[in-house]
Amino acid sequence: MLENLTQRLSRVVKTIKGEARLTEANTQDMLREVRMALLEADVALPVVRDFIARVKEQALGTEVADSLNPGQALVGVVHKELTGLMGGSDGEFASELSLATQPPAVILMAGLQGAGKTTTTGKLAKWLSEGGHTAKGKKSGKKKTLVVSADVYRPAAIDQLKTVAAQVGVDFFPSDGSQKPEDIARAALDHAKRHYYDILIVDTAGRLGIDEDMMREIRALYDLLNPIETLFVVDAMQGQDAVNVAKAFGDALPLTGVVLTKLDGDARGGAALSVRHVTGKPLKFVGVSEKLDGLEPFHPERMAQRVLG
Ligand code: GDP
């Protein structure tokens, strides 16, 4: 079992009990522990550096309440900072999708192969067609939803989406590997308009790594579809690499949000902080199971807790 941050800091703090303020001297060892904890949680190194600098700035001069020791005071600062960076406390943070537009509202899914795009497309389609509740607990109203796959490179990908759509009971717009992704997108959009769909979710081709062709292709789809939401799907297990992938997608596309998948695995979730840091975009949902009901709104506080251990 990993030691949690409070335990780690209280070990360091034994030597500096009874100090009234957090200072450069008494936080140095503790900040080193915070740094280690974040690295163990797979937060990317440059992100850790920035974060520590911010915490330091916030912490220095902070009065240590009588009931606390300096370690507890610092954990408070770290927790608050981390929650804030990930989008604020649950109460004030809106992870909702913004779908207020002339229907169909298009959601474009972006991410590497294996990140969980197709699965998340199915989960989101289920969520929206059933009127999933938001982070604030409100129901959003049932949406007539259509899904389509523009992944013409892996025929299995189109079949996979078809299966997923059938499982969640939403309409699937057929496509096949001989078509151009843009033609598929255009036809699906036209169909969605003519049949009064509220939502069109477009699943796209991923690659195993960052690839110029992939970025050009998804950018062309973006320009054609003018999506109201462009969601970057990233695997929580990607750890340190998540930062480069997020940067590449964030540079190529005006992302509106992030979905962090596979949080049911043992990843500590450091990728959440890294991705938020490099894209500046809110995490909107987390994937918590292979099953199609395994999608939850993102809760910054819970994620902060998880990252800190
Ligand atoms: P894509 O290539 O981006 O479309 O990725 P897929 O949707 O095919 O997902 C790749 C693998 O990850 C599949 O085996 C999914 O079942 C699995 N997967 C996706 N999301 C989650 C999740 O939140 N939790 C778990 N445990 N597995 C997931």
TrEMBL record:
Known EC number: 3.6.5.4
GO molecular function: 7S RNA binding; GTP binding; GTPase activity
Self-association and partners: Part of the signal recognition particle protein translocation system, which is composed of SRP and FtsY. SRP is a ribonucleoprotein composed of Ffh and a 4.5S RNA molecule.
Domain SRP54-type proteins GTP-binding residue range list: 282-295
Protein name as it appears in the record: Signal recognition particle protein
Positions contributing to GTP binding: 111-118, 203-207, 261-264
Localization terms from the record: Cytoplasm
Similarity field: Belongs to the GTP-binding SRP family. SRP54 subfamily.
Function field: Involved in targeting and insertion of nascent membrane proteins into the cytoplasmic membrane. Binds to the hydrophobic signal sequence of the ribosome-nascent chain (RNC) as it emerges from the ribosomes. The SRP-RNC complex is then targeted to the cytoplasmic membrane where it interacts with the SRP receptor FtsY. Interaction with FtsY leads to the transfer of the RNC complex to the Sec translocase for insertion into the membrane, the hydrolysis of GTP by both Ffh and FtsY, and the dissociation of the SRP-FtsY complex into the individual components.
Keywords, comma-separated and alphabetical: Cytoplasm, GTP-binding, Hydrolase, Nucleotide-binding, Ribonucleoprotein, RNA-binding, Signal recognition particle
Recorded domain comment: Composed of three domains: the N-terminal N domain, which is responsible for interactions with the ribosome, the central G domain, which binds GTP, and the C-terminal M domain, which binds the RNA and the signal sequence of the RNC.
GO cellular component: signal recognition particle
Biological-process GO terms, alphabetical: SRP-dependent cotranslational protein targeting to membrane
Organism: Pusillimonas minor
Catalytic activity: GTP + H2O = GDP + phosphate + H(+)
